[in-house]
Amino acid sequence: MTKNIGLSVTFPKQNCTDLHCPFHGKLSVRGKLFEGKVVSTKAKKTIVLQKESPVYFSKFKRYARSKSTIHAYKPSCIVIEEGDTVLTAECRPISKSVSYVVVEVKK
Ligand SMILES: [Zn+2]
Question: So what CATH class is 29-106?
Answer without folding.
Answer: mainly beta
